[in-house]
């Protein structure tokens, strides 16, 4: 089936609101047929709104509607049309590639994960991703023609004009490469590319426990620190597709030179790389970010102290960001998000200390609800929202 090119939707637009409402109906109907009155009660949408959206879905071939009776009254029963279409998300990290596949109703069908060596090249990683993509489709019983698009997440800023990774990325080997042509040739499907923090925000907004939230910030803490911002239900990407680079906000308390060339960036004191460097200086035997939670949960005082300091620094940046955006929710992702007492709690306390009273009283701070899958699910959401 021929589809129009995937194009971004304006943040907070009426079409974005309608797409979210349509998705709410899909998620309910994924559990089985329902009457329009039941859909209205379940979603809180007006009967007229439900009727209009259902009519659009029927016209598009996404649903069927037939007359029935409910409580002795005439009613319309709505069912999703059986479809084999799926979207695939690919999350490329500093040391891994992860793939997931899901339906338009946000039903997760399968996933694949492969560890990668530090310094992996784009060519080698693409070969691994394609191999895992084929294996994933075989596992879930789909053909390449069933895939409406492939979303790909990269840990670094991406210039959406040229589809290239720009300076400051966690994968310096990928800087300057025009990724889109090679990806589309390899997958033979439409491809969208996004920054991993931005996709983390989409993953939470579309697959997480907070799908009713229209305004949220997702903070990804890893080798780098980035923020994905959802406003009015849509991703805020900025004029060039580069936004949310809070890892390079300057802190007065630090004058360490950052990899971006500036001094005192948040990443120099609060990234997993900086934590690992400090732990090694303190005589701890650590090699990867997974070692940090292990040490903290064993009661290592140095690890706990470094985590608290990192949480407070990220909380300060989060407070400034919250003052500007006024989100309902701040979600923290990455390998440290499991440390609620040692990391999330000092982060939240610092955020509240650096935010204005109304923000302080209303914004919530929570760990990611989808864990390691968040960014890959966000890559799926990037495709599904464009196709709606």
TrEMBL record:
Kindly state which keywords UniProt assigns to this record, in alphabetical order.
Kinase, Transferase
Family the UniProt entry places it in = Belongs to the ROK (NagC/XylR) family.
Q: What is this protein called?
A: NBD/HSP70 family sugar kinase
The record's InterPro entries line, in alphabetical order, gives: ArsR-like_HTH, ATPase_NBD, HTH_MarR-typ, ROK, ROK_cs, WH-like_DNA-bd_sf, WH_DNA-bd_sf
Residues in domain HTH marR-type? Answer: 25-74
Task: Tell me the domain of life.
Answer: Bacteria
What Gene Ontology molecular-function terms does this entry list?
DNA-binding transcription factor activity; kinase activity
Which organism encodes this protein? Falsarthrobacter nasiphocae
Q: Which PROSITE patterns match?
A: ROK
Question: Which SUPFAM superfamilies does UniProt cross-reference here?
Answer: Actin-like ATPase domain, Winged helix' DNA-binding domain
